[in-house]
Amino acid sequence: MNAAPETGYGQHVAIIGLGLIGGSIARGLRVAGGAASIVGCVATTEDAKRAVELGIVDEATTDLGKAVAGADLVVVAVPVGAMADVFADLARAMPAAAVITDVGSVKMAVITAAREQLGARIGRFVPGHPIAGTEHSGLEAGFGALYEDRRVILTPTPETDRDAFAAVEALWRALGARVTEMDAAHHDEVLAATSHLPHVLAFALVDTLARMAERTEIFEYAAGGFADFTRIASSDPALWSDIVSANRDAVLPVLDRYIGDLEALRGAIAGRDGAMLTSAFGRAKQARDRFASQYIQDQG
Amino acid sequence: MNAAPETGYGQHVAIIGLGLIGGSIARGLRVAGGAASIVGCVATTEDAKRAVELGIVDEATTDLGKAVAGADLVVVAVPVGAMADVFADLARAMPAAAVITDVGSVKMAVITAAREQLGARIGRFVPGHPIAGTEHSGLEAGFGALYEDRRVILTPTPETDRDAFAAVEALWRALGARVTEMDAAHHDEVLAATSHLPHVLAFALVDTLARMAERTEIFEYAAGGFADFTRIASSDPALWSDIVSANRDAVLPVLDRYIGDLEALRGAIAGRDGAMLTSAFGRAKQARDRFASQYIQDQG
Ligand SMILES: NC(=O)c1ccc[n+]([C@@H]2O[C@H](COP(=O)([O-])OP(=O)(O)OC[C@H]3O[C@@H](n4cnc5c(N)ncnc54)[C@H](OP(=O)(O)O)[C@@H]3O)[C@@H](O)[C@H]2O)c1
Ligand SMILES: NC(=O)c1ccc[n+]([C@@H]2O[C@H](COP(=O)([O-])OP(=O)(O)OC[C@H]3O[C@@H](n4cnc5c(N)ncnc54)[C@H](OP(=O)(O)O)[C@@H]3O)[C@@H](O)[C@H]2O)c1
């Protein structure tokens, strides 16, 4: 039995930005086979040429107006800080009925930018965030299976049209993702804790060690645990600077809480308070083991 | 061509503690095939029975004296904090010529304990630490290939006999490891940075999040980056409490340096200082990428 491809998201899809996230959407849509055309918008003519060569999209252009001219659905997959400018251009160039969604890792800042730039089209806008990624970025980094069995959080505004929401939901379903709805402010708090804070901590650790005199040797004697722990510190610096700045108000409280807890642990280490250390580490292990058994499919 | 198994470590090997580290040594020696007998010492008769059933050792006992009676080489693979007691028993029970080595993650504290307990036998003692492990522990956690292509750091004291050092080097070679020699205090500083600090940071993060009101939801929306970042927080709490306490004097300075750097980043986030964030994250990415390309064989 061959199920007909899911097409509730429209025939013509335009993707602004073909990096890890946008490029993976394009590749996944190809495989799913429901869209009549996929057009990509990128920054340079070289990337446009390369995107078509790689078979990611049917057409690629550096001209946003051209990219979205016939679009039913526009996916904005650029860094959060670049979205306001893209929205301003879209408000001028997009067909009136087209649905617009984004993939930004922060939702409140993107919604504010959308309200300011999209004007009367705000009802067509469905804010979204796929909970999937790797530490790689750029045109070559994407892959079609990135969203399979992953969660995508949609954070509609009070103005969001029902049919626009349904179209974006259909897009992610076609890519194999599981869609959840959430309040935007709450999304930003949850992601500050599980994603933005860990990135800051990993970047900070590697930077601290890299600036120590013995740095070469330090890395030479690091093992598998260190490799896993620091993987996310190989992520794109500009993208993550952008994310933590845009989500500052949610990142700071959880960062402060962490620094406070770390200082308490420091006290316990200084005082060789084994009972306190064992109980804090034990609570952590219990929570991590529960997380692993519930949410990680591919445990190594 | 079948190379004769490496046997420079002696015919009769006793391993005190058959957890992840000791059990992996036993399993690896079985495969290497150079020892005439491998005897394990464990805490309970159930574990002794199970260890023989699993085929990890030829014999297992809860009686340390029995375990080491005919040994050429004794490997102590218990938590760092338990080593002093084991050394005290060994000083009474071990044949005079037997070589003794340990696998503890901290070296200065173990050497101090060895000096206090081993007395005249201190020349037979070769402190060691395999840079290999997983977040699992116990009798079932070990595997014979754990040390293949891994580094083992030996930190001999001025008293260490040359032949004892050579025997322990031969043991690790037989298991496929690469042996390096290092000063014990320096070892403790390097490992504080690459292993002990990351464990503290990972335990602290998971504990911070687990104690937040929204904890269930937080973990539900965590992705692959979080799973990798927190893997080491599934390690044994008592073992790691023991390690950071034993290595307190090396852990505190690098932890303080880290907290200072994290507070500077906090200031940059609060001030939305994108340039500062991008440059710190960028230095980290550069160092992590270099580390990955030089030292990680099995990149995902
Ligand atoms: N990485 C993750 O794990 C992850 C996960 C979920 C969501 N997201 C979100 O997904 C979005 C894209 O991230 P990504 O990981 O796909 O990054 P990426 O691989 O670096 O791709 C970003 C894309 O945006 C373009 N771009 C960069 N700066 C721009 C600007 N100022 N104006 C217009 N276009 C610009 C890039 O073009 P050039 O290559 O020519 O610069 C590239 O096509 C971000 O909003 C991010 O928050 C990321
Ligand atoms: N885990 C790593 O990644 C790693 C890496 C390199 C070195 N090390 C070092 O290797 C050593 C062993 O660690 P492991 O990971 O193998 O831990 P493990 O799997 O928990 O094994 C520890 C072994 O020591 C025994 N033991 C525990 N407490 C004891 C005590 N008070 N007296 C005597 N025996 C005791 C345990 O017996 P029971 O099961 O009956 O308690 C078990 O056989 C530690 O010194 C550690 O620092 C660990």
From TrEMBL, chains A, B:
Tell me which domain of life the UniProt entry assigns to the organism this sequence originates from: Bacteria
What is the name of this protein? Answer: Prephenate dehydrogenase
Report which residue ranges the record marks as coiled coil.
none
> Pfam family of this protein, just one?
PDH_N
- UniProt KW Oxidoreductase keyword: yes
Signal peptide location = none
* Protein source organism: Salinisphaera aquimarina
Every copy of the Prephenate/arogenate dehydrogenase domain together lies at 11-299
Q: Which UniProt keywords apply?
A: Oxidoreductase
